[in-house]
Structure formats: C-alpha cells, structure tokens
Amino acid sequence: MSISLTTQDTATIAVRSLSKDFGRIKALADVSLVIGKGELFGLLGPNGAGKTTLISILSTILPPSRGEALVCGWNVATQQEAVRRSIGVVFQDPSLDTELTGEENLDFHGRLYGLDTLTRRNRVNEVLALVDLEERRHDLVNTYSGGMRRRLEIARGLMHQPQVLFLDEPTLGLDPQTRRRIWNYIRSLKDSFGMTIILTTHYMEEADQLCSRIAIIDSGVIVGLGSPDELKSTLGGDVLELAVTRPTEEFVQSLRSHPSVRSVLLQNGSLMLTVDDGESFLPRTFDLAHDMGIRISGVSVRKPNLEDVFIKMTGREIRDEGIKEPRERMRIYRWGMRK
Amino acid sequence: MNLFFGTVYTLWLREVKRFMRNKSRLIGSMAMPALFLVVLGSGFSGVFRYQSDVSYVEFIGPGIVAMSLLFSSMFGGLNVLWDKQFGFLKEILVAPVSRTGIMAGKTLGTVTTSMVKAGVFLVALLALRLVRPDPAGVLMSLIFMFLISASFTSLGIAFASQMKDPHGFQLIMNFLIMPVFFLSGALFPLDGQPQWLTLLTHLNPLTYGVDGMRYALGASHAFSPTLSMGALVLFWACATVVGTVLFGRMAA
Known about the structure:
The complex is a heterodimer.
Chain A: E1 11-22, E2 25-36, E3 40-44, H1 51-58, E4 66-71, E5 74-75, H2 80-86, E6 87-90, H3 102-112, H4 117-130, H5 146-158, E7 164-168, H6 176-193, E8 196-201, H7 204-210, E9 213-218, E10 221-226, H8 228-233, E11 238-244, H9 249-256, E12 261-267, E13 270-275, H10 278-291, E14 296-302, H11 306-314, H12 326-336
Helix pairs in contact in A: 3-4, 4-5
Chain B: H1 2-21, H2 23-43, H3 56-78, H4 80-85, H5 88-93, H6 99-127, H7 135-162, H8 169-182, H9 195-203, H10 205-216, H11 225-249
Helix pairs in contact in B: 1-6, 2-3, 3-6, 3-7, 3-10, 6-7, 6-11, 7-10, 7-11, 10-11
C-alpha cells in the first residue's frame, strides 16, 4: 500500500486524495482526512455537499474515482469484505424491512454478520434496551413512528459491535425531543464502547454539541477542519449583527478598514461583522453610521457559532439549498472577501 | 463456506416469514390461476376435442400449475426492486456476505413460496382426480416444478438488476410473462399448430416445463421426458448464471 500517512497505524480512517465523479459532476474533489480511534467525528455541510458520497465510499457502496481510503487498515476498493466486517452503517434513507418485526430485523442483521444464536439473542436484548424499544420488539416495523424506526436502525447498526459506526444524518426530520434522545445514545456509544463514530449532518448545533472534531464540506471539498472551538476561534472575538435600512458601499468600506474588524458580510439586509471585541466596538459603529447619515435599526452581539464559521468559509448560509441568483452570489462573494 | 450457507438460510428465512405473514397476497396470487382453471376449464370443455377421453380441465391442469409457478417466481425475483425502493437492499449489500449467497438465498426462498402456492393447485388436481400420477410421477413433477421456479426467479432477479424502480413491472408482465405463458402450450396442444406458432412454442423454455409436468402427472405429452428435462436444466443453468452475474453487478 502506497499510503504515506504517518498516522496510518493508529488511524481508524485514512482518506488520501479521494475523488468521486458522477459524469461531469465532481461529488468529491481531492479529499484527505485522518480520523483516530474513538473519535466522534462530524461531517458538516449543506445538502449535496458530498457527505453521503464520502460515507458511501467508506462503507464500500460506491467505488472511488481516484485516490484511496482505508478503514481499520483495509482498503475500501480492494478489501471490501474486511471493511464491511468492521463497520456499521445507519443510512440516511430508511432501510428496514417493514414487513418484519423490530426484533426480526435485528435478528436478520445478526445472522448476516454471522453471529450465533446465543450472541444474537443477547445483543438483540442489549441494543433494544439501549434505544428503548423493548416493548415494541414484536410489532411489525410498519407500525413504528419515524423516530422509532430511526432508533431501530441505530440499534441494528450496533448489533455486530462494529469498530466504526457511520451515521448518515441520524436525526434528519425528527422532532427536537427525539433528536436529543438520539444524541444521548450516540454519546453513550462513544463513552461506553469506545466506538469510532462518523456522523454527517447539516444541523450546526448537532455538530457543535456532539462532535469532538468536524470537517466542513462544501461542493465536495473540505473547507475547514478542527474541533468546534478551534473552528469558531478562527473567527476571532465576537459576531456583531447590524440591521441597517440602506447600507452604502462607503459605510461598509469604512467598517472594513477598521483595524479590529475581521470581516464584513451582507446577509438579507443586515450586516454581519466579526470583530475582536464586540462590546467596545459597538459604539464606534453608531458613530460611523451617524457621520454617514445611516440608521441602524437593530443590533446584536454574540459569540460566533458554527453557522458563522460556515458562512465565512463558503460565503453562504448552510440553509441555502437552491443555487442563489448569480447577482446575489457575486455580491456576497465581493463583500465577504477578506480585506 | 459456513458463512455462505448462513447467508443463504438467512435470506431464505426472510422470504418464508414474509410469505407466511401476508395472507392477502397469498390469496391474491392464487386468484388468477384458479380463474383460468375453473372458467377456462369449464368454458371450453364443450368445444375441446383433442383426445376423446381427456376433458379440457384435465388437459390444462398441469399447465395451470406451471402458470402459478411462472407468475410467482418472476414476481418474486422482481421483488428485489421493492427492496431497492424501500432501501432494504442497502442493508443486505453492505453486509460482509457474498452476492452469490444473497442470490441463492433469495432464489431458494422464492422457489419455496412459489412451490407451496403451486402445490396447493397440484393437491387440488389430485383430490379432484383431474390428474392420476403414480408416486414416482409426483416426485418427478416436483423436480420439474423446482426447475421452472428456480429458472424464472433467476430471470426475474436478472431483470430487476437492470431496472431502476418497480415501474417497469407492467412492461415485464405484458411483454414477457404473458407471452411466455400463452406460448407454452399450457392452454392448447402443441401438435397440429401453424408453423410460426410451433416455432415459437418450441423456443419457449416453459413449453418443456409444461410438457414435462404433463408427462410426470400421467397426462398426454408431446416430447420425451428426457428432452423436456434436458431443455429445462439447460435453461435453469443459463438463467442462474445470467442472474448471478447481473445481480453481482447491481448497484445499491
């Protein structure tokens, strides 16, 4: 194997210059990544960023176009069966047999992974207890709610006690209460089994609350990598949001030229500034606005969150699912450039 | 090797469990062959003069068993597409098991359920004395039933692996299943037909299944049992190879 990562022996996942093309679309472009044992690693990005493609390659469902990826030391392209044996996957889309009961789905899974009868029985009980589905074990899955199905899928992914667990959008479309419960399960998996967990999400707070490290993906490229705190600290001190009726180019320029301002972005009629010290800088903005005859109708000072990091790295909000109007996109790009 | 049989058994068990659970689907799948047997059987009994001592309902009996096998086997194979639609195929394909094992288990499961359904018709035919085989004939008819079912299940899986979603079912039904059934000699005698029809029936693998069933069940038949068995085994081997190769390449 030609991989030259020094961490190869300790890395649970090593991805090197991985690319995936679908025709002319580049789903992943030259992605490199090392994930250590026991990490709870998050892939954060908007829909269509390439998160699921990366998970699909790592779980041997899709072959890579170029580059290579190792999972537990096994090559995903050439040693598929060994990779499959060491991973568990919870897919984004439902993948249960709804005409079987919850217990039968788990039992089926255990059989596929070659567990004997006694082990299967014990594991079924364990994982059902973990996701609180013991009472519904004999019911057909088509009578389960969305949240229960999701929990059953997570339970199934744990049946064979994989070294690595992939969770693709584990809380997509779930209510806040169920989401928090699933977060707790995920945390307990990491704490009690030392499992390496890779989850994808487009929920900022999910990545922030759960993950020890995050890779921000946009258009198939990793644009940011680090712990949530590290990523946020790249923005510096505070985020200042100003609601301004009609911001002029001159006003934005003068803000940008101020030494304590790191970046200025126009977002839906309000200005987003990252500054070293928000509270002391706030009066200056009012002075500037007053001098230029500009009215500030609202203001907020807060610590940066991952959303801000994402906006800074990509120039747009993660919630944007469609492609922006070209003009608007250009404007944000222009105004968002570092000084 | 142990793991291979484990996979086969697991997939087989799933088919059988789902089959036993879904009574309405079972009854639904038996309605059409029953309709053919009862309505065609009585409707044509007056005008059918093939052999003076054979009534039409006696004549089509073995063909209706084959029809039941053809329908449930093809649809069993095509059901792979529903697994794809509902995502369950991913669960199977990401497991550390061979595609050949999955294919074999799925096929054996469908063969089991198809043979149970067709077996109900066979028992009915025996009970009504519409067929009068000796015990060896019953055993032989089971072998023919297995070959018919296994071949068309593999063919169904082969087609499923080339299709994207279950919307093409209707196409397969109209352009494959129905022609194969009508051109099999299940409903009419093979001899004394126009040349084009004879050519088509002789090219149809199900023809040999139906004729073999006729022989095994002690009814009048056109080919030697060796020819029927040989042709069917050949078709079974081809369908299995094609199905296994295409399913092996199927993307999740």
